[in-house]
DNA sequence: GTGAAAGCGCTAACAG
DNA sequence: CTGTTAGCGCTTTCAC
């Protein structure tokens, strides 16, 4: 562990190993045209000197930056964190690094970041819960710039994306509640600008229809995926002359808001009101009663998206469309049959 | 918006504007030695061509990467997200980008990342909740590599760091409970490897001492900052022959675990047991009852740390030590005087 | 197999 | 004020 203060370049390594610096470069890049014996000598020299390749230089000369841009709306809930965990795992494997941009749900920022990043700052883009991808998907596609959308329903165009089976998730959860005996099921939507929110609602509606339960507009509350929406929506439901016996929130944090509201009214979950969420964030299994919820394979979505992006970077011509990972109903403690009346 | 597919370099701009490419470089770098008129012409040419400077090349030639490395343990709780929000705001202002590394609390990863990053990949390092900084602080300091520790108590060495007044926060909260009339106050610690956890406990102890309340080892449960610790710890407390009337958890997520445990026992917060947290993550004000907690100025810590780092990058010789931002007790609904017996 | 040479796009002296 | 000239550290030809 020689700790010279100065930067060690391939030239230093070359001198140390007694080869030309071109050969060192070959070793670094795992070029086959190096005698095993020479390779060994170079590797040893690198270690002895504590050599670390300069990324900037590699990029300049070679073309790749070894950076992947990651755009996320925010880091507030565990939701994004889980996705990033998956992305991270996959990228680390390939020696790529993540450049993080937080858009705070500002559409203009999103477009601006994308525009700049696509001009060579990163090798590819991962867009989580993109707000208005329509603005830039065209440009990205035309330039053949690699990108993958995470958790977004296509804008009609078919472009690389990974998401979950939101419709099915909404359907399954609602069906589960119906089979438990519930007839009045409140639904709190997500932010309806997002395709996933629309799909979950559609799934809920479809299940009602299948079981011939009339839809009641009073039992649908439009939220935005934030916890207070769950609270407010539930309060509104509970004030109804004929309140629901179960409430299905479009994500877990809103479901927690619902739980708070139910308790606030002096009622109990699940005895008086069943509560069901969506996502299965880490918190879901930790609250009491543990939340029954529709699991999204968040970490896996991140991992799959990263893989897709890497493929796309290797073979830009390859056509890939949307991949849907399946959701799964995770039954815990927050739902039970309604009280008999 | 000329959309040539090829990369546009300063040479193209130079040709377009009818100047040498050295002049274009000056314009990019806001060099004063350019005739306003010429600058204008160059700027126009850049716009016309849609020029974006190549970061890799700038770094290679100029020395700065315009990237800041950010090491975080994980992205699970809102806690880190808030800090990042502050960092982000400050860095965006300066046109710097964030390279994200998630260590997942693995000490070896932490050291490895730091070692690599410090070798020119980024201009500076921001280390949130570092696990074993002692391993690399020496090297970093010796090389005069700019870095700032966030939320970590110094290892004896005095190095750039920003944190909160954890001791005072622990003291204030405990004092508040005592003044409410509580005598038996359960305390759930954080991960005791971390200085902040130690300080909060020390503050708790100091307050007890001040008010001549004997410390009871049964009322201290060692946790690790995760929600289940709060649940388990509270369960243990509640099983005591003489259970506490108030429980102070070393962070908010553990406090939420405590709330769950209290409810699980059929008791109410705050009527039967008061609960107090630490951090004031966004969730704290959203749960019911809203959590009384010690607020850490998380976002501001991020902002201040970023500023410190930028200063350090500009003036590497400058000596800076630890900055402590003050905590504040935020009184909401989860605490009240104990039931009279 | 390996060495030598030519840039990648830009900054930073250095001359005028 | 502006043009010119060297590199920054590395990948890639292209020879040998």
UniProtKB/TrEMBL annotation, chains A, B:
Cite a single Pfam family from the UniProt record. Answer: LacI
Q: Which keywords, in A-to-Z order, does the entry hold?
A: DNA-binding, Transcription, Transcription regulation
Listed GO molecular functions? DNA-binding transcription factor activity; transcription cis-regulatory region binding
Query: What range(s) does the HTH lacI-type domain occupy?
Result: 8-62
Keyword Transcription on entry: yes
Q: Which Gene3D superfamilies match?
A: 3.40.50.2300, lambda repressor-like DNA-binding domains
Q: Matching SMART domains, A to Z?
A: HTH_LACI
Superkingdom of this protein's organism: Bacteria
Put simply, this protein is called LacI family transcriptional regulator
Species this protein is from: Anaerolinea thermophila (strain DSM 14523 / JCM 11388 / NBRC 100420 / UNI-1)
């Amino acid at each position: 562990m020689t700790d010279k203060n100065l930067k060690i370049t391939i030239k230093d390594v070359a001198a140390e190993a007694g080869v030309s610096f071109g050969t060192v470069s070959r070793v670094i890049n795992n070029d086959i045209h190096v005698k095993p014996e020479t390779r060994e000598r170079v590797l040893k020299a690198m270690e002895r000197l504590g050599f670390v390749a300069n990324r900037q230089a590699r990029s300049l000369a070679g073309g790749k930056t070894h950076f992947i841009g990651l755009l996320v709306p925010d880091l507030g809930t565990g939701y994004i964190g889980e996705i990033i965990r998956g992305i991270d795992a996959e990228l680390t494997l390939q020696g790529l690094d993540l450049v993080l941009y937080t858009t705070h749900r500002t559409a203009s920022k999103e477009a601006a970041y994308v525009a700049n990043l696509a001009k060579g700052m990163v090798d590819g883009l991962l867009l989580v819960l993109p707000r208005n991808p329509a603005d830039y998907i065209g440009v990205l596609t035309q330039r053949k710039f690699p990108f993958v959308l995470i958790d977004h329903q296509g804008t009609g165009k078919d472009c690389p994306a990974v998401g979950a089976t939101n419709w099915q998730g909404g359907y399954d959860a609602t069906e589960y509640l119906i089979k438990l005996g519930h007839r009045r099921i409140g639904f709190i939507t997500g932010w309806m600008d997002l395709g996933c929110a629309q799909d979950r609602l559609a799934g809920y509606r479809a299940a009602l229809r299948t079981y011939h339960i009339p839809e009641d507009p009073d039992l649908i509350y439009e939220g935005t995926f934030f916890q207070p929406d769950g609270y407010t929506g539930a309060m509104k439901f509970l004030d109804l002359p004929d309140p629901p016996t179960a409430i299905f929130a479009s994500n877990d944090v809103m479901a927690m808001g619902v739980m708070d509201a139910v308790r606030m009214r002096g009622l109990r979950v699940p005895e008086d009101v069943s509560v069901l969420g969506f996502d299965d964030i880490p918190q879901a299994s930790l609250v009491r009663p543990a939340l029954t919820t529709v699991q999204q394979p968040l970490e896996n979505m991140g991992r799959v998206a990263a893989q897709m992006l890497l493929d796309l970077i290797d073979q830009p011509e390859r056509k890939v469309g949307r991949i849907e990972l399946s959701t799964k109903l995770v039954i815990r403690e927050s739902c039970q049959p309604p009280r008999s009346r």
